Amino acid sequence: MTQTAPMNDVTNLPRPTARESDPTTLAAEITERLTYRIGKDAAAATEHDWLTAATLVVRDRIVDQWMHSTRETYAKQGKRVYYLSAEFLIGRLLRDAVTNLGLMENLQTALSDLGVDYDILAELEPDAALGNGGLGRLAACFMESMASVDVPAYGYGIRYVHGLFRQDVRDGWQVEFPETWLQHGNPWEFPRRESSYEIGFGGHVNYDDNDTCIWTPRERYMAEAYDTPIVGWQAKRVNTLRLWKAEPLDPIRLEAFNAGDHIGALQDSNKAEALSRVLYPADETLAGQELRLRQEYFFCSASLQDILRRHLQQYDSLSNLADKVAIQLNDTHPAVSVAELMRLMMDVHGMAFDDAWDLTKRTIAYTNHTLLPEALESWAVPLFERMLPRHMQIIFQINARVLKEVRVTNAFSDEQIAAMSLIDENGERRVRMGNLAFAGAHSINGVSGLHTDLMKKTVFADYHKLYPLRINNKTNGITPRRWLAQANPDLYALCREVAGDDILSDLDQLKALDTVAEDAAFQERFRAIKRANKGKLADLVKDRIGLTVHPDAMFDIQIKRIHEYKRQLLNIIETVALYDQMRSHPERNWAPRVKFFAGKAAPSYHNAKLIIKLANDVARAINRDPAVRDLLRVVFLPNYNVSLAEVMVPGADLSEQISTAGMEASGTGNMKFALNGALTIGTLDGANVEMKENVGDDNIIIFGMTAAEVEAARRDGHNPSAIIDGSPELKQALNAIESGVFSPGDEHRYRDLIGGLRTSDWFMVAADFEAYASAQRHVDGLWKTPATWDAMAIRNTARMGYFSSDRTIRQYAREIWGVLD
Question: Is 672 designated active site?
Fold first, then answer.
């Protein structure tokens, strides 16, 4: 039961007339929306009412350009990009839209004339809970950049009701609560009931007399579309983020309900709701694994059906699909799209396997975001076959084709061939989604130079040997509209004075700041902006957790998903060691610091949650000690999200990018901090390598083992106990943590966590400690020479042009999608 709207001829429709957007007109429209759309008199309206009214007025101006962009794309019959991602961490949209439309000043004036403060309203907008971390924020930056550089695109994902989770901290422990961002509706979205598609699970597969496959699912649901317009810089183009909500075919089994089975009668509704309720349901149980697989197939199938429907409305054949459609898979979550596109072309549209396989490979491209084997998803064959029996058949067919191609080369051992199989035969048989994505794509890209190089040597070494032209690099980027103009408007204004008014469309123009990096007057203005941003962050800390921190101290910040390879633990241990040294040597001229941490741990990730508890335990001890009151503070801010990052990033002096070398694919937080004038302390990992090349060796603090040294240490073995015994500061810090100094109510709380460093130290925390501590003392020295620090910070801002997501998207568009000249 697929519903679609007819595609009418729009080629001759005129461009919409631009609406008047002076303050008087805006104020009148806001009042009109308040009255007739919300049903409130201005005297009785709440701040949330004013926010909705203002959003609707801004949205109207976006819609005009949105419709024109759609008509123009249709008329040109050009190629469209479809970006499939399980996450889109778009954050708040009002400030983003107002900035890109150029309405900020007029809207502020209009609201002020109505007695309303724009800044207060903007803070009321909830963050869209559609993502977790870097993967989702990258997708959001890419969507904005595609609109800004005029790439026709749709983003496809799931309209999560609760997203990941809202993080609270109780007695230092992470506690998860539902995120209720949709509780009061979402004025940015448009329901598209005409674009709904049937999604099936389970059942059986038969063949008719013509040998056509007929899959009869046991369970059937509907995917309903909700569209959000994504406006590009200066409204050059408005693209669409289409999110899917699951609905039952029958909302209630009325016969069962009337018979008294009130719970069973709603079973289909409950199952449907679960599909689009929570991002990344915990997968330590079979039920959790099944729900994840269901979610991934649900949004991939709906998206692909929508893509093919749109294509066939404009063209009469799928034969030109790869010429008109580019599908980008953002990591392995949408990898089932390879099998689903094959199913749709063969079973629904009657295409032969060879033709479907050729079209699939030419249409799909795959972005890899990890070298961690556990993050390259795999599914138990019995689970996959039970949920998606037809797709399991297709995957076996694809696997036979790929392995035959491998064997005829006579270039691979049996062990290598087994590693390239789409089915892992070691123990429980599992479907390897990374291998499926690689086999079914014409392009596989990494997201930093180092990551791409390591892909060729590690997880996809054999595939790279078979298909040496498929792997390419597209180093990540960030949108300067969000992460400079909106997050740091005072710095943006200062940069414009030196670099001109076009920096948001050409971030390379920031290089002009190099000429004033040593200028004392410019440094003073740059420093004053940083100090004001730190004041805002200090106020936020006071408001949220009741702790006073002084903006004149160095704000040293690590914000990212809590994971052992990101090494928040290394940071905490060095903080404990610094605390010991400050107490032992009060006569030294210490640089005052505030150590900030923020990030969420996966609910089932025990060690990550323990690291959050340790950070809070250490913070409690240090913040209560009068001996270091003016020298050291430790802050853990709960519920890290985009809006919190928009305050923390501009307020940072030092950016912690200290992952184990060879394990971070790219990172984008490193780019945001540097763009906003923070110095980076980090390893040669991910995009840090390219940041070092761009900002210069003298403007970044690099320490620790290289990826090759980490690999050698793991391969050849290293002795962490000997390393610990040879480092008095490290040994003392670990002993304090392990013995319960920071957990007096539970002396053994951190015994296993620290014990892991003594026995294996897989993430090289002990191995890198001395280098890290030495680098931090070098940072202290730089802090004590403000002119040197400021010059380095200015050069970081000046040299971030390469890391614009506009540059990244142009590379995708030209080298993978073929949509820009």
Answer: yes
